[in-house]
Amino acid sequence: MNSLTPLTQSTFAPFGKVIECPLKPSTTTLPTSLPTFYNAVPANQETALKFIDVTQMRNGYDAAPSNVPARVTMNMFSCFPRPMRASNPIDFPVEVKILERHPYTTQTFIPLGVGRETQGMYLVVVAPTLPATGKSPFERMGPPDLSKVRKFWAHGGQAVTYGAGTWHMPMTVVGEERMDFVVVQYANGVAEEDCQEVRLVPAVQEKL
């Protein structure tokens, strides 16, 4: 695995999108110079700033074998922290036992009730996809390329959208407190079309 790096839009671009506010925490009034990080426009009688189209949802279920239509779902996950072995919150080994993907939909994780760098931390572990190996629903889209796994750390002021079909580790929170996430995606209720998993035996264990 590559070394752990901060989650940014440029580093994560091959796998999806990062959503974060470009304003400084000290900004309490409408700025005179609008940020260019997103397309931003004044809103609500100039008491707010609207960042337009910060992420894009994708519904690819028209290509799913079952032809069962999908709908937007919004769930909430309460994720409990993994134990640390050292004072540095990212200096501990993690076992990557499972990678999963959602082949026909994007999936966005939105942290709740936490702020920026000092409040909440979670890991984003992703892998590209190898060429397809067969005709089954799993094989048709290819297994994960474990030689090119990427690891990022994200803070509570960042949401993340996994691109459709992106292999990723289930949400992993580090530190001392639980983090809650609203998760938005499409789903049609067909298990192998909504989520596919690969179990790594033996598990990949590395110090992040």
Describe the structure in your own words.
It contains two helices and 15 strands. The chain is mainly beta and 208 residues long. The strands form four sheets. Strands 1, 6, 9, 10, 12 and 13 form a six-stranded mixed β-sheet that branches. A five-stranded antiparallel β-sheet has the order 2-11-8-14-5, with no helix packed on it. A two-stranded antiparallel sheet has the order 3-4. The longest helix has 4 residues, at 9-12.
Low-confidence spans: pLDDT under 50, at least 5 residues?
Answer: none
Overall body shape: globular
What string, H for helix and E for strand, traces the elements in order? EHEEEEEEEEEEEEEHE
End-to-end gap: 9 Å
What's the overall average pLDDT, rounded?
85
Q: What kind of sheet is the major sheet?
A: 6 strands, mixed
User: What percentage of amino acids are in beta strands?
Assistant: 35-45%
Helix proportion range: under 10%
Based on DSSP secondary structure assignment, what is the total number of beta strands?
15
Count of individual helical segments? 2
Class from secondary-structure proportions: mainly beta
Radius of gyration: 18 Å
Blueprint of the fold:
Blueprint (H helix, E strand, L loop, with lengths): L3 E3 L2 H4 L3 E5 L18 E5 L4 E5 L18 E9 L1 E2 L10 E9 L5 E6 L8 E7 L22 E6 L2 E5 L4 E2 L3 E3 L4 E9 L3 H4 L1 E12 L1
Parallel strand pairs: 1-10, 6-13
Antiparallel strand pairs: 2-11, 3-4, 5-14, 7-15, 8-11, 8-14, 9-10, 9-12, 9-13
